[in-house]
Design a protein that fits this description.
The termini are far apart. This protein folds into two domains: about 90 residues, Ribosomal Protein L25, Chain P; about 80 residues, Beta Complex (RNA Polymerase Alpha Subunit, Chain A, domain 2). It is an alpha+beta fold and about 230 residues long. The chain is about 20% helix and about 35% strand. About 15% of the residues are buried.
C-alpha cells in the first residue's frame, strides 16, 4: 500500500488561541495511539484537505512532525465547520505496522444489475461500510461488491457472499446480514396509495379556540367557585 506524506508542527496554542490558528489557515490536530503519548499538532489546512481527500480514514499516512521521526497514522476523525464545511480539527491515530488494527472500510459497488436497468428495479444498499481487522499494510481502500449477480428480484447479497483480501477479517460474525438487493418497481395502484398517504399526512386539521384545553390554576379555580355561588 502506497503511503501518503503529511508534515505537521507541534502546537502550543490552546483554548481560545486555537481560533487564531484557523484564521492563519492552519488546522489544530492531535496524534495518539497505543503506547504513544498524546501530542497536539497544527497542520496547513490546504495540505490536510488534499491528504484527507486521498487517504480518507483507511489509508496509511506518513506523518512527519517537524524534524522528528515519521509516524504511520490513520486519519481517525475530522471535524468540519457548519457553515463553510472547512476542516476545523483532525485526530491522527498512530499505528504499528506489525500490530493488528480495526477500521471501517467502505463498500464499492461495481457492475450492473439487470434487475435494475432492464426490469426497472431499485438497488437497495443495506450496508455502506464494514469493520475489518488486519495489519495496517493489508488495510484495503475499499471492499468491492459485484451487483451483477442481482439479476432478478429474488437474489440478495449477504456478508457470506463477500470475498475480502488475504489477511483481512470481517468483524461482523452474522454472515446472513443483508448487504444489497433489488426492489421491484411499485405498481400504479401502490403509487396512487402512496401519493394519497402523503397528501393526507400533509393536511393539517383545522383547529378552533373551543378545542383548546382550559388551564385551571388555584387562582382561577377559586374565581370559578365564587361565580358558581352567586
Amino acid at each position: 500500500m502506497d503511503k501518503i506524506e503529511l508534515t505537521a508542527s507541534k502546537r502550543t496554542s490552546t483554548g481560545r488561541k486555537v481560533r487564531e490558528l484557523r484564521i492563519e489557515g492552519k488546522v489544530p490536530a492531535v496524534v495518539y495511539g497505543r503506547g504513544v503519548k498524546s501530542e497536539p499538532l497544527e497542520v496547513e489546512a490546504r495540505l490536510l484537505e488534499r491528504v484527507f481527500a486521498r487517504a480518507g480514514g483507511n489509508k496509511i499516512v506518513a506523518l512527519k512532525v517537524g524534524d522528528g521521526r515519521v509516524r504511520n497514522v490513520l486519519i481517525h476523525d475530522v471535524q468540519r465547520g457548519t457553515l463553510r464545511g472547512e476542516l476545523t480539527h483532525a485526530d491522527f491515530y498512530a499505528v504499528r505496522m506489525d500490530e493488528l488494527l480495526k477500521a471501517e472500510v467502505p463498500l464499492r459497488f461495481t457492475g450492473e444489475s439487470t434487475a435494475v436497468y432492464q426490469d426497472e428495479g431499485t438497488l437497495l444498499k443495506n450496508v455502506e461500510a464494514l469493520e475489518v481487522e488486519c495489519l495496517p499494510a493489508d488495510l484495503p481502500e475499499a471492499i468491492e461488491i459485484d451487483i451483477s449477480v442481482l439479476d432478478d428480484f429474488e437474489k440478495t447479497i449477504t456478508l457470506a457472499d463477500i470475498v475480502v483480501p488475504a489477511g483481512v477479517k470481517l468483524m461482523d460474525e452474522d454472515m446472513d446480514t443483508l448487504v444489497a438487493r433489488v426492489e421491484p418497481p411499485r405498481s400504479d395502484e401502490e403509487m396512487a396509495e402512496l401519493d394519497e398517504a402523503i397528501d393526507e399526512a400533509a393536511e393539517l386539521p383545522e383547529g378552533s379556540k373551543d378545542d383548546e384545553p382550559t388551564v385551571v390554576s388555584e387562582e382561577n379555580e377559586g374565581d370559578k367557585d365564587r361565580r358558581d355561588k352567586k
